[in-house]
Design goal:
23% strand; 4-stranded antiparallel sheet; Rossmann fold; 10 strands; alpha/beta; 6-stranded mixed sheet; single chain
């Protein structure tokens, strides 16, 4: 039996005055998958996320999350999702643990302290839990932000350009976190403008351009859209440095002088 999509978007349209941001967007996301919306700035990625998270109404089309229509059942949608925006929404005055406890209390959950401790361990922040979030690195702050968004075990999480402004090491930390979410069965919709990010993380990739989905498929399917590149091999001549290092290498470690000498070679011994 085929599973119902965790996210289903059909004919989605949205304009702001005379600017047509979405021009009929369609895609499905299967439960437990990482789905990447790949596009440049202004392509409409954040607008889609805002509609799916009930923060913005579409002009036309429909969208369902976890089987709930975002237009007619927004409360049910909100109870089953979480959203992490482009910038970490942590309170820098509070410690990492206090940030988590605050969110757990706002969600009216029992044992907020235990929930906070579990998430600190899960996201490798236990040693920093008692420190103020203001002292965290970019990667740590983003991991804390994602941990906060997981309180209440949402079935779907929206990550809107989660690695914007992060250094390479912090980006890798966030990638590892996203993979952990998917392994635990969470459906992830990821928006990004980084091609390598989509390539590393996504089960399926949709390329959004000027408000339309151009293609939607697995990485292998997208690569098959273009013919294989022809690779031409160019003979690389050795440099003088390479010649010198080879000739002067310790006995047995390099090529012997006789092997590189030919007719007319410099320093050729008389016969």
């Amino acid at each position: 039996m085929t599973q119902e999509p965790a996210i289903r978007v059909t004919g989605l349209q949205k304009s702001f005055k005379d600017v047509h941001v979405l021009r009929g967007v369609d895609f499905d996301v299967q439960p437990g998958a990482i789905f990447a919306l790949l596009g440049s700035n202004g392509a409409g990625k954040t607008t889609i996320v805002r509609i799916l998270s009930t923060l913005l109404a579409a002009d036309a089309g429909s969208a369902h999350v976890n089987g709930f229509d975002v237009a007619t059942r927004p409360q049910s949608v909100r109870e089953s999702i979480s959203l992490t925006g482009q910038f970490a929404a942590v309170d820098e005055v509070l410690t990492g643990r206090e940030n988590l406890i605050l969110v757990a209390r706002l969600r009216h959950l029992k044992t907020p302290g235990r929930i906070a401790d579990d998430l600190l361990t899960r996201f490798s922040l236990a040693d920093a839990g008692s420190r103020k979030a203001a002292t965290y690195s970019g990667g740590m702050r983003r991991r804390l932000d994602i941990a906060m968004s997981l309180i209440g075990d949402p079935k779907v999480i929206f990550l809107d350009e989660p690695t914007t402004g992060l250094d390479p090491q912090a980006r890798i930390e966030v990638w590892q976190t996203v993979r952990q979410l998917a392994r635990r069965g969470t459906t992830v919709l990821l928006t990004t403008q980084y091609l390598d990010e989509a390539e590393q993380l996504a089960d399926r990739i949709a390329i959004l351009h000027e408000g339309r989905i151009l293609v939607n498929g697995t990485l292998a399917e997208l690569k098959r859209l273009l013919p294989p590149a022809k690779v031409e091999y160019v003979e690389k001549q050795p440099s003088l440095e390479e010649v010198f290092l080879t000739l002067t290498a310790p006995d047995g470690a390099g090529v012997g002088a006789d092997a590189v000498r030919g007719p007319g070679s410099i320093g050729k011994e008389p016969s």
